[in-house]
Every structure is written in C-alpha cells, then in structure tokens.
Structure prediction request, 385 residues.
Amino acid sequence: MTRPPLTYVVPLRWDDGADLTEMTGYLRGVAEYADVVVVDGSDRGAFLRHARAWSSFVRHVPPDPPRPFRNGKVEGVHTGVELARTEAVVIADDDVRYDRAGLERVVDLLGGADLVRPQNYFAPLPWHARWDTARTLLNRGFGRDYPGTFGVRRSTFRAMGGYDGDVLFENLELIRTVRAHGGTEAAPLDLYVRRTPPTAGRFWSQRLRQAYDDTAQPARMALFLAVGPLAVAAAVRRRPLPLLAGAAAAVALAETGRRRAGGAAVFPLSASLLAPVWVAERAVCAWPAFAAKAGGVGVAYAGSRLRTAAHSMRTLRRRTSPHPTNGTGPTTRPPDGTGPPGHSPDGVGPTEHSRDGVGPAGRGEPDALMGSVAEGLDRRRPASA
Prediction:
C-alpha cells in the first residue's frame, strides 16, 4: 500500500477513565497510510495508558512548545507540526474521523494552498448535535464554517512562527495568521469530514465559550446582541409577524447552507428547522459573553481564563515582519527548493486560485471589515508573538 506524503497530528488531553477502543481503531487505520503524531497533554496516568495502547503504531509524545500556551490545543499543534516529517500536515481534533479519500484530497489541495479548511459534519446525530449543526448551516449560508481540522503546509507554519496560543478561538487565529502572512487558503464546501458529537453535558458547557468566540467577529456579535432586544420589543408590542419573519429567515438561510455543494447528503433537514432555536440561544449567550469581554475577565478554559478570542487582521498584519528573501508569501520557497503551484517561483507572493475553493486567504470573512473594533478591545493586554 502506497502511503501519501502526510503527517497526521492529533492534539489531545483526556482523563484516565476514557474508553480507548474506538480511538485506537481509528488511529490504527490512519497509521496505515500516514505518519501519525499524537501530542498528549493528559496527566501522567492517562498518558502512560495511552502510550501502552498506541505507541506501537503512532508517535506518542507530550507537548513541547517553544513556550507554554494557555490554550493547550495550540501547544499540541506546535509540537506536532515541528515533529512532522512531511510538507503536508493534517491537524485534527480528537473527535475528527477522516476516511482515506478525504485525507488524500487534503494532500492534493495543499499542492496549491498553504491552508486547507474542510467541512465537518456530525455523525451520529443526537438532539444536541442537530441543534449545533444549525450553526454550521448558517455559517455555510453566509460563506464557510470553522472546522475542527485543517491541512497546512509545514514550511508555511514554520515560516510564520506558528500562531498565538493564548487565544480561545484558535481555529480563526490560525486562519487569520496565514492570511496575514500572505498565504492562500482552500476551503471547498464539499470536502466533508465526519466528527463524532460531544456528550450533552459538554454541549451545554460550551454555550458561553462559543458565544465568546464571536467577540473576534464584531459584526456578528453586534447582530446577536441586537436580536434579543428586538425580539423582546416585538413580543411586548404583541407583534408576532417580525418574530415569525426572523425565524423563517433563519430557516431559509440554514437551508441554503444545507443545500450548497451537496450538503443535504450529510446534513439533516431538521438542523435547518432548528436554526431559530440556535439563533435564540446565541442571542441570549451573547450578552454575558460581551460583558465578560468588556469587563476584561474573559472566559474559563482548561484551568485558566482567556480574554482574547482571536486577534484582528490589523493586529496580525502589524506583527508580521517582512521576509527579505521570500517576498510577502510565507512559502514561496520551501526548504526542498520546490514551491506550491499557488506561489510564483521568483518569490513575489501568492497567486490567485478559484478551483476547489482555493483563493487568497485574506478573503471570505466579512467581519474582518470591523477588525479594528476587536483590536481596540484587545489593547488592554500585551501582544504575544
């Protein structure tokens, strides 16, 4: 069996009582055609148990970042990418479940892009996964969703020095950091990758944290802050039509997202019908999230508190120093002397693409227009490189 030139990185932190059966089978399957690196931030007892189960077919290591990050997942990502032996790297949360075709497509897309953003879907689908799928569909209705997995070129990641690990919305931080360095992004809507759903308890525990993520996208946060007062005003005045119209608009937008790029094959109609419920939930949670941001207290995460969801593009571009030998693109010349098709060989920066959702990574996020608002809120804390 021919193995694709791929390293598969899984950052995780599990307690000692976790059932390893399903994960062990999945990792063993991926290891048949990729070099798997599990970066394990679990406590010592769980770490040793995982080592006994996995070390014979994966590289099982503790996090070893250049400096400790408050977001432990980013510690694992930095360690795993540094240990990668290939240019193509897939970073995947521990609940992501690729098939071989999906991984091979990511590798192909990395031939012309610095970052690949797949589309996750939940399977199986308990009630809370259907509820959360409404968020995915609304994101697809507007543009792109934020998955729990990415493909990245190792040379790009190292050239830009990785990304900030003291943020909550680390996926958005990675996307924006690649953009700030002039990289290209492939985000095909039809690259579907399965994700196992969380428990209902974990779902509830993430409501405020996920609402806090919107503080990195001010236009989106402003929208949800407005929904609650408008709905209350309509109810007080006994005007049901605005409420019904808003609910219908949410369902229509979610259904648009569900039908894009053959999404109806993996997303149920019930998730579109739950869109008004999800919008109502986010409208309620937006206010305490905004208060936590404005008060500078942030939200609890893995034993610490994170105040920054993600940095604005303006902040990240200001941090980005010029590359005197490589022009503006981070991967115009990888160490092996070759370059992705999306970069010019003379080092003048990335070129544009349209096939398979490949394009300049700086596009596709309307809220970036209001990034200066988020930057102003973040000035209370020193910048971390």
